[in-house]
């Protein structure tokens, strides 16, 4: 429940706004103001009382949270982690999936108790992929807001559009609108910084080169060499909440025979793995199809389009790291 290793050292001052995108500098300024308010005592507040000073004429409370909306690669997670670093605890930062996993591990009431004393809860990659998550998260965040917890979240989807294209969102509009009401939305425009002005992704290696390069990986014992189809099969037998644990002591990943992923469940598991690898700054060397050909046009046109595009963006960035950091085969 803390920022992943890639974002250990980020701060508002290390975020470099694109001068052609004013919304980026505006988002930094707004988040700095939000952090300042929390540092000045605007964090967790006592639970509501029957009688409060000021009576019915008291000023309405400030918005409970900030919602960073924008395309992949505009630095939303950088800014979310910067906010987390700028605010004193108790506080937590997790992905949306990790939050739902926490409820699964602790139970709903215990999760509410564990988080109700927080000053700030940051939620990265906010997604609503099924009706159960919609009701669960809506109820959880409502209780945390009642307890005075401030919220911050990132997503590629506006809060009142969450779930569209993935389930019958109209049937759960009350819960979705309840979630939206907790947040002030900040739109962050821009191009994917991971590839802005950089050369094209490196071409896939040959199978034999992947094996040879794995022997020269940084920290040889931390090089994971696998056939890509076997990786996908293994992911199906491990809960996504454990994908981070799979990467413990792994310093470089080598995949032979990358093939297009045509099954949606498999593709979503790969998205989670790519996120955890990216968090840990793991370089990738692979043979087979290039990463920008992982998902079909049909899949990229569906409800999970933004997840797949984010995964491709991150895998290409890690492949570029692999080309630069792993010595060539000899």
Automatic annotation (TrEMBL):
UniProt xrefs under Pfam families: AFG1_ATPase
Keywords assigned by UniProt, alphabetized: ATP-binding, Cell cycle, Cell division, Nucleotide-binding
Domain of life where this protein originates: Bacteria
Alphabetized Gene3D superfamilies for the sequence: P-loop containing nucleotide triphosphate hydrolases (3.40.50.300)
Annotated InterPro entries: ATPase_AFG1-like, P-loop_NTPase
Gene Ontology terms describing biological process: cell division
Name the UniProt record assigns to this protein: Cell division protein ZapE
Originating organism: Yinghuangia aomiensis
Source lineage: Bacteria, Bacillati, Actinomycetota, Actinomycetes, Kitasatosporales
